[in-house]
From TrEMBL:
InterPro entries linked to this entry: Anthracycline_SecMetBiosynth (IPR052164), Glyas_Bleomycin-R_OHBP_Dase (IPR029068), Glyas_Fos-R_dOase_dom (IPR004360), VOC_core (IPR037523)
Record-given protein name: Hydrolase
PANTHER family: CONSERVED PROTEIN, GLYOXALASE-RELATED
Pfam families: Glyoxalase
Domain annotation VOC: ranges: 8-124, 138-259
Organism this protein belongs to: Streptomyces tirandamycinicus
């Protein structure tokens, strides 16, 4: 797999109260297996790589503090974590953890945008990030939900150089982000921005939603509910495939998307998602 360009999503992980339960849930849902040993990265014990077809696609970690949110978090690639952290501050965001080396694998930063959505940075060392993406059981998309689109759009443009393209459906306030130096549009989009409207609960904070590719959305939803998960947006069709929004059996929210057309990206998540929001999505400073 080619190296990740600046600002491209390159890793995801989940912080869970019960790591072993999480391994069982996602193992049965996505066919994940796990690395033979787990590592302790700072305050996050038992940080465990999830594998699909033997390739790292995500990680699960045991929360060391019950007050931490139970979430999926996303990391964006950077060539210089220290410089990107500076740009985050200058653009009005918050740097939660300073650049931290991780066992020679790379360097990570935890940050938040001006509206409070939490995300991570990853500067590669021995590991670029995902070894598989876009295939069933692996990451395929992410989008940020915000109440302050003007501040957030300007922030990600300044920090990563993202260029926004509205969806053809102008009834939906959604931007597809393309990396700096590319021709903006569906073919180059790597993430998106949606707006938290009145259809969402008033207590919902800014957050990222992580999508995983699946073979069959309806079958995945049935399997997730059988495993103790919950449906927050039932399966429905969008121009880029068939999707649904779920929470796992511990409350971490994520989306599934079946067979997006080649070279296309998913659209927006539905306005009913989620029924009962969890804490803001947070990336793990332990990184990939």
């Amino acid at each position: 797999m080619a190296a990740f360009t600046e600002g491209t999503p390159c890793w995801v992980d989940a912080q869970l109260p019960d790591l072993e339960a999480g391994k069982r849930f996602y193992g049965e849902l996505f066919g994940w297996t796990y690395s033979g040993k787990s590592a302790d990265h700072g305050p996050y014990p038992h940080y465990t790589d999830a594998l699909r077809d033997g390739k790292p696609v995500a990680a699960l970690a045991a929360k060391s503090d019950g007050r931490m949110p139970t979430t999926w978090g996303v990391y964006f690639a950077t060539g210089d974590a220290t410089d990107t952290a500076r740009r985050i501050r200058d653009a009005g965001g918050q740097v939660i953890t300073t650049p931290t080396p991780v066992d020679g694998l790379g360097t990570t930063v935890l940050a938040a945008d001006p509206a409070g959505a939490v995300f991570g940075l990853w500067q590669k060392g021995e590991r670029d990030g995902f070894a598989l993406r876009g295939a069933p059981g692996s990451f395929c998309w992410t989008e940020v939900y915000t109440r302050d689109k003007d501040a957030v759009d300007a922030f990600y443009q300044r920090v990563f150089g993202f260029q926004g393209t509205p969806l053809p459906d102008d009834a939906v306030d959604y931007l597809m982000w393309s990396p700096a130096g590319t021709e903006p549009g569906e073919d180059t989009a790597i993430a998106g921005r949606s707006v938290i409207t009145e259809a969402f609960p008033v207590e919902m904070p800014g957050h990222f939603l992580v999508y995983f590719a699946v073979d069959d959305t309806d079958a995945s939803v049935e399997r997730a509910t059988r495993l103790g998960g919950r449906v927050t947006a039932p399966p429905f069709d969008i121009p880029y495939g068939r999707m649904a929004v779920l929470t796992d059996d511990q409350g971490a929210a994520f989306a599934v998307l079946a067979e997006p057309a080649p070279g296309r990206t998913p659209g927006h998540a539905p306005e009913q998602q989620p029924e009962h929001p969890e804490e803001p999505s947070g990336a793990d400073p332990a990184a990939p």
